[in-house]
Design brief:
Elements (H helix, E strand, L loop, with lengths): L21 E5 L3 E6 L5 E8 L15 E7 L1 E6 L2 E6 L3 E4 L5 E5 L6 E8 L5
Antiparallel strand pairs: 1-2, 2-3, 3-9, 4-7, 4-9, 5-6, 5-8
C-alpha cells in the first residue's frame, strides 16, 4: 500500500471549521460554503443559526453524508425525525427528503456535508 505524505500546508487537507471554497449563501438563517476542489464530490459547510431550519429538499441521483460538528438540533429524513449533535453522522439515501432544525436558542448548529456532483438544491 502506498501513502501520500501530507505537509501541514497541504491543499489536500481541510480544517473542519474552514473548508475553503466560496460562500454560497450568508443570511439570517445560515452561512453556507462549498469547496469544489474535487472533480466529483463537493464538501459543503453549514452554520445554521439559533432556532432556524434549512429549507428541506430531496434530489434524485444524489446521496449525501452530513457530519455534525458542533451544536444540537433535529433532523428530518423522509417521515422520521431524530435528534442530532456534534459527532453524529447521518447518511442520506438517494431521493430522501431531508431537513435540519437548530433547536438551540443560543448557539449555531454546524455541520459538513459531502455529496457527489453539482449543487442542485
Amino acid at each position: 500500500m502506498t501513502y501520500k505524505i501530507l505537509t501541514e500546508d497541504s491543499e489536500d487537507k481541510l480544517n473542519v471549521y474552514d473548508i475553503g471554497g466560496v460562500t454560497v449563501k450568508d443570511n439570517e438563517t445560515y452561512r453556507l460554503k462549498d469547496n469544489t476542489t474535487l472533480n466529483n464530490l463537493v464538501v459543503s459547510s453549514t452554520e445554521l443559526k439559533a432556532m432556524q431550519s434549512t429549507q428541506g429538499h430531496k434530489h434524485q441521483g444524489q446521496e449525501e453524508v452530513y457530519h455534525f460538528i458542533s451544536g444540537y438540533g433535529k433532523m428530518e429524513l423522509d417521515d422520521r425525525q431524530f435528534h442530532v449533535k456534534g459527532g453524529d453522522i447521518v447518511l442520506i439515501p438517494d431521493g430522501s427528503f431531508h431537513r435540519v432544525h437548530n433547536t438551540s436558542e443560543h448557539g449555531a448548529l454546524y455541520f459538513i456535508c459531502v455529496f457527489e456532483g453539482k449543487r442542485n438544491h
